Amino acid sequence: MKPILIGIAAAFFFAFTFVLNASMEATGGSWIWSASLRYLFMIPFLLLIVAARKNLQPLLLEMKKAPKQWLLWSFVGFGLFYAPLCFAAAYSPGWLIAGTWQITILSGSLLAPFFLTTVYTKNGPLLERGKIPYRSMLMSSIVLLGIMLLQIEHARDISLGVFLLGFIPVLLASFAYPLGNRKMMALCSGRLDAYQRVLGMTLASLPFWLLLSLYGLLTEGAPSASQTWQSLLVALSSGVIATVLFFQATDYVRNDLKKLASVEATQSMEVIFALAGEILFLSVAFPSPLSWIGILTVVGGMILHSIASNCPDPNTVKVMSNP
């Protein structure tokens, strides 16, 4: 029960991203500053965490080995992930973006053929190209159905152009995030822990965030004190607290696939928390019955997907290493 509760707490703090981004957009803040300030503020906190764990020097040495790959995949995994999410906040409510974001489980599955994986069979380890997990994809279709219900309800009162501006960026982010992070995990080959990877990718994506900040300064002017403060809260809640909690929860159950699936499924609660936050603090309209059906379908599909994707093949053994 403890890992589940920690996982739910992580989802709660992750939801702050969607609520605060919506708040900043509603008060006239630019998506440019919402995106760039989060990662700029994350750096000192992550530096303290990694340095306290005495893992800073190994990280810097690892980054020197392949700087171009660090720059490229950090830009994909962080830049093309978070900037589009912030852009979408100008056209969709936070709870809807949180629901649509769950499509990443489908996007991640479709990326499987682009990676080589080591499969431990009864006859020994084999290196093979990843295969699309059709069993879990079937469960993903339930999530997709829920997202369609959410988007159909939202699309009734807006133009096609506004709908696409709120949906396409989230779709792009759903592919960029798993692609960038998986490429980095493959590059590091277990030599870095999750905290080091997050800090390394934040540092490597820094050129993008600085260029985006310069563009924002020239086109939008400096961020307001309110947006700066809220961006700091996003960096703390989502970038630091939620990440630490989620890693802790998965670490507790890393050797139990069924419990790990349950912890992963807790992240679908982001939709509920984001919705509650916007209703309480931003006075958004209460969702219609159709939207509620869509939300519950997304949450249920996430749970079923996690269960299906963590049922091991009887002919293979999944080896889980220590973090």
TrEMBL record:
InterPro entries, per database record: EmrE (IPR032713)
Keywords noted in UniProt: Membrane, Transmembrane, Transmembrane helix
Protein name per UniProt: Multidrug resistance efflux transporter family protein
Keyword Membrane part of the UniProt annotation: yes
Lineage: Bacteria, Bacillati, Bacillota, Bacilli, Bacillales
Pfam families: EmrE (PF13536)
tRNA processing recorded as keyword: no
Biological source species: Planococcus chinensis
Transmembrane segments: 31-50, 70-91, 97-120, 132-152, 158-177, 198-217, 229-247, 268-286
